[in-house]
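#lab-general

N.A. 3:47 PM
ok so I finally got the sequence cleaned up, no stray characters, all 206 residues accounted for. can someone with queue access submit it? mine expired

B.Y. 3:52 PM
send it over

N.A. 3:53 PM
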Amino acid sequence: MQTKLYNQDGQEIGQTELSDGVFGVPMNVDLVHQVRVGLLANQRKPVAHTKDRSDVRGGGKKPWRQKGTGRARHGSTRSPIWKGGGVSHGPRNDKNYSQKINLKVGQLGLKMALSAKLKNDRVMVVEKLDLAGGKTKDFKNLISKLGWTGKSLLVVTAQPVENLTRASANLPKTKVVSINDLGLLDVLKFHNIILTTHAVNRLAAK
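B.Y. 4:20 PM
back already:
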């Protein structure tokens, strides 16, 4: 499929080819949701942690003899029903929340998200992006010329570009990533996407 090609001054300079296999994939909301949930689960790092009865110190001696006292039988003072005892079914920081995401399913979810962005006119292809220095002011002027201010913005390059990354670091709702770091969560999180022509070519090859 064809889409408009711009220079970094925001001027239309022609057309560029986009792969139908990446930007022309019909949306399956359930699949995209499944991949998103899996990715978020894989990022999860549990912090809350409670001790169960085997972790709590003490309680080795039986509090009183089994029979004949008139009281309930107990084997340890570290039982969950005792004050100072362990916690039943509490949160543990060793719990594993990770989910398996098949490679093809993950790639398909990314393609669907990119296709939906293009369909909603939220994707712009720029011939190249050059910044002489890593100045935030220069980067703001760049995206202003492209007419993509006011919304969250994801800039995708073929290779990591230090100047662009440094210049965008202080801008809210703005992120610069290379193709190798592009994931579904970023595509869903940011409203608009700018891709360089080299990034488009590498994305199709990948």
